[in-house]
Every structure is written in structure tokens, then in C-alpha cells.
Amino acid sequence: MKIENLNIFNGAISGKGTDPVGSFSIVGQIIGDSKINFTKQYAGKDYFVNYTGTYDKENILTGTWSIPNTPEKGDFKLTKAYYDKDPHIAPAIP
């Protein structure tokens, strides 16, 4: 997955990128001090991936991802190195 930008500001998470499935947007939120919820929605497709987890003071996002209505799920970890440059590269995250 290549993240072209990932913005975390004022309790909101947003971004965009591409992967083998296609182009996508990221939209979500930070709840309280550290809980995160965001969705990776593919452009022009009825397909998305949900992410839930935590956001720490060192700008690391960790948690689980899942594809609704399927058994597909797993763990993810995005460190600042993945999203502080353009383009951002975040391997092994669906």
C-alpha cells in the first residue's frame, strides 16, 4: 500500500493512496486521547477496509483491520516513517 498523504489533525484522520486493488481515500477519527477508527474506501468500488486501534504520543497507529462481511482480518502498525514523507509506503497493510 502506498499512502500519498495521511493527515492526523484536530481529532480527524484523512488521506489517500493506492494499492493493488486501486485508489482509495482514508477517513476517520481519533476518539478521546488515543482510540482510532478509520476506513479505507476504494474509488468507484463497493469495497472498503475498516481499521480500529490506538494512536500513541509517538505517532504510531496500531490495531486491527477487517473487511466487512468476510472472514478477512489482521493486525496493522503504521509508524511515523510510513506517513511523514511523500509518497508514503506502508507495506503489509491491506
Question: Describe it for me?
Answer:
The chain is mainly β. It has one domain (2-83). The protein contains one helix and eight strands; from the N terminus they run E-E-E-E-E-E-E-H-E. An eight-stranded antiparallel beta sheet has the order 7-6-5-4-3-2-1-8. A hairpin with a 6-residue loop joins strand 6 and strand 7 (73-78). Mean pLDDT is 82; it is low at 84-94.
User: What gross morphology would you assign?
Assistant: globular
Report the order of strands and helices.
EEEEEEEHE
Output mean pLDDT: 82
- Major sheet characteristics: 8 strands, antiparallel
Spans of 5+ residues with little confidence (pLDDT < 50)? 84-94
The helix content is under 10%
Radius of gyration equals 12 Å
By DSSP (H or I, 4+ residues per run), the number of helices equals: 1
Structural class: mainly beta
What gap, in angstroms, lies between the N and C termini? 7 Å
Strand arrangement within the widest β-sheet reads: 7-6-5-4-3-2-1-8
When the domains are counted, the total is 1
Strand content: over 45%
Number of strands: 8
State the main characteristics.
94 residues, globular, disordered C terminus, mainly beta, single chain, 8 strands, 8-stranded antiparallel beta sheet
In short:
It contains 1 helix and 8 strands. By secondary structure, the chain is mainly beta.
How is this fold's topology laid out?
Layout: E1 2-9, E2 12-19, E3 22-31, E4 35-42, E5 48-55, E6 61-66, E7 73-78, H1 80-83, E8 88-89
